[in-house]
């Protein structure tokens, strides 16, 4: 998989998998926990996101790659001196998907974010690949 970034690197080493769990507003699943976040309902689900404010990536710069449902992958860079929380990542990913959905005409309500695969390139860059359920 090719990512567009400054070094044109391919992610090499999986170093972490970040999951998104949401407390269900009605009882479903395992003890009322939903193991994904719907991108279309991300604003509502942030309120019930487990460990939303916990810093899960300590690096100050990351690249996020969005592949589905696009014909060509899109990557974007995020910067934060304090690292990144689940909430920050979900907000940024959702905003990018909303903008892409308007330009490419697809429905974000059909996309559930299961996890983020975190890779470290040979040059030490952190790149995230989205794992979606559609």
Give the tags:
single chain; alpha+beta; six-stranded mixed sheet; two-stranded antiparallel sheet; 10 strands
Q: Roughly how many Å is the radius of gyration?
A: 15 Å
Overall SS class: alpha+beta
Q: Roughly what fraction of the amino acids lie in strands?
A: 35-45%
Query: What is the string of helix and strand elements?
Result: EEEEHEEEEHEE
**Low-pLDDT runs:** 1-7
Structure description:
With 134 residues, the protein is α+β, with helices and mostly antiparallel strands. 18% of the residues lie in helices and 35% in strands. The strands form 3 sheets. Strands 1, 4, 6, 7, 9 and 10 form a 6-stranded mixed β-sheet that branches. A two-stranded antiparallel ribbon has the order 2-3. The longest helix is centred in the last third of the chain and has 19 residues, at 86-104. The chain is globular. The model is unreliable at 1-7 (pLDDT under 50).
């Amino acid at each position: 998989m090719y990512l567009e970034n400054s070094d044109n690197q391919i992610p090499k080493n999986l170093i972490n998998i970040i999951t998104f769990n949401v407390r269900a507003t009605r009882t479903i699943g395992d003890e009322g926990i939903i193991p994904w976040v719907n991108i279309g309902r991300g604003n509502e689900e942030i309120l019930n996101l487990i460990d939303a404010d916990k810093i899960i990536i300590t690096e100050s710069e990351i690249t996020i790659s969005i592949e589905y449902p696009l014909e060509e992958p899109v990557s974007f860079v995020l910067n934060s001196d304090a690292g990144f929380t689940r909430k920050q990542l979900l907000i940024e990913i959702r905003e990018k998907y909303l903008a892409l959905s308007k330009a490419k005409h697809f429905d974000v309500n059909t996309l559930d974010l299961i996890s983020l695969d975190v890779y470290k390139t040979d040059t030490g860059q952190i790149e995230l690949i989205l794992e979606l359920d559609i």
